[in-house]
Amino acid sequence: ERQLSHRYWNATCVDDTAATAVMLSAERLQELVTLKSVTVVSGTFSALGSLFLITTFHLTRTTRSVGFQIVYWLSVADFISSMIYVVEGQLPVDPRAAADNTCPDPVGCVLVGALKQFSLVAAIGWTCCIAINLKLTVLQQSGRQKKSPHQLIHSMLLGVWGSSLLSTLFLLVVGALGLA
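Now predict its structure.
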């Protein structure tokens, strides 16, 4: 009698777990669809903001200071990143891939992962360049710094885009890009 009770308990638990898993996957699928919608909307607003800064830079000649050049390049990196999120958010949700946490299109996942890596590392690099520019500007105004930020803009361009490219290529070579 105790064995029968134990078997009944195990069977009931398994059935409840299976039903719960089915319910959770439907809830999880709805969460993923909602998350993708939020990603598309926020990515669109971010891309529009970046485009505004890029357009302003190209239309006005008075905005050619080093600080604005750095903000321009940050906007370019952010625009790339935002567009990746918009495009990725438009892709349909594959329930099997979402349940297994796998990628339905390995080439697409590697491409998205590489572009995200490149643009986000560049955004971090340009943010650091803003801090460097601020420090150099303050030190130059106080007379303690002889090198102006204008002399460093080419080094910043090479350093930021180069480090972004190298980090992306490194992750690509070691096979660390994939499910993005």
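Residues 19 and 162 are 51 Å apart (CA to CA).
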